[in-house]
Write a structure and sequence with these properties.
heterodimer; A: mainly alpha; 8 helices; 73% helix; B: mainly alpha; 7 helices; globular
């Protein structure tokens, strides 16, 4: 029960921030996909930088666990392409669709119904996908530092510099 | 702050990152959304055929029930609702302005494309385990 309340409160604060930064709007989502308005990339990039440093810091202190996903090439590439296609049509991603509905964007409701349907279809296809797509290029649970065979604190500053350079470029181009 | 009241995306994003770190530290939960759509689909299917759902591999792996992430997604809706109502930016809208400029003001057309987009996006998100 406590975990559920934590979920609700965390989601509430996150939804509040998303709405304040205007990143849940169709115009902002499509603006990024059309390379016209990088607001959501600025939000995501900043969030990733803070999250990356914080999570690895507490991981090294033994106070947090990492949640590493499987790196299976086939489903990641095909899934990524399908997600991008659907995202472009819908104009909201799974989390932001809830936020968009919260600020009165009714079209997000149809997207949510579509996403529940898509999840149901995926559950039907899952046994077949496990025998096929999920066997294509399985590298297991790996991180970039692990693949490079170096300490994560050597990778983290490089990522920070790259993201900050991208941010500076956005600002220079007025994106 | 910009003139329209929007928060700086770098600041808001950084705060969201901080919130994410606190969540991992205090509750051991990473932010996510798409698994909740699987759980919702499973819960709906359970109404019509609980035996069938109980035997499906994917619903054995992702159990159809309300969990931390489901409440997180519901919380996003509430947070956005409160933020928009208190700042006067809440607006009932069936067709986004950018969509209307290219494809017209028909809510049905927008609804059908949004639904289809949702189906494809979620199938892809689940496939890539996003």
């Amino acid at each position: 029960m406590t975990t559920l309340i934590y979920g609700l409160v965390t989601g509430f604060l996150f939804g509040f921030l998303l709405q304040k930064a205007r990143v849940i709007r169709y115009e902002k989502q499509l603006g990024a996909l059309r390379l016209q308005d990088m607001t959501i990339i600025k939000f995501m990039g900043s969030s990733i930088l803070v999250g990356m440093v914080g999570v690895y810091l507490f991981y090294d202190l033994g106070m947090a666990e990492l949640s590493i996903k499987d790196m299976i090439t086939g489903p990641v590439i095909i899934g990524g392409i399908l997600f991008g296609l659907g995202w472009g049509l819908l104009g909201y991603c799974p989390g932001t669709s809830a936020g968009a509905l919260g600020e009165g964007r009714v079209d997000a409701f149809w997207g949510i119904l579509g996403m529940i349907t898509g999840a149901a279809l995926f559950a039907e296809a899952y046994p077949w996908l496990m025998r096929t797509v999920y066997t294509w290029g399985d590298f297991g649970k790996v991180t970039v530092p692990q693949m490079l065979g170096i300490n994560h604190w050597l990778v983290i500053p490089v990522v920070i510099v790259l993201v900050v350079l991208i941010f500076r470029w956005f600002e220079k181009k007025g994106l | 702050m910009k003139p329209n009241g929007a928060w700086n995306p770098y600041v808001a994003g950084g705060l969201a990152g901080l919130l994410g770190v606190l969540s991992v530290l205090l509750v051991g939960q990473f932010f996510g959304a798409s698994t909740s759509f699987v759980r919702t689909a499973g819960m709906i299917e359970q109404v019509f055929g609980p035996e069938r759902v109980a035997e499906m591999d994917y619903f054995i792996r992702v159990v159809p029930q309300i969990d931390w992430q489901w409440m997180f997604v519901f919380g996003i809706l509430l947070g956005s609702l409160v933020s928009s109502l208190t700042s006067g930016t809440f607006r009932w809208q069936t067709v986004p302005d950018m969509w209307a400029r290219s494809f017209g003001h028909t809510p049905v057309k927008r609804g059908v494309v949004a639904f289809c987009g949702g189906v494809v996006a979620m199938f892809g998100a689940r496939l890539a385990d996003g």
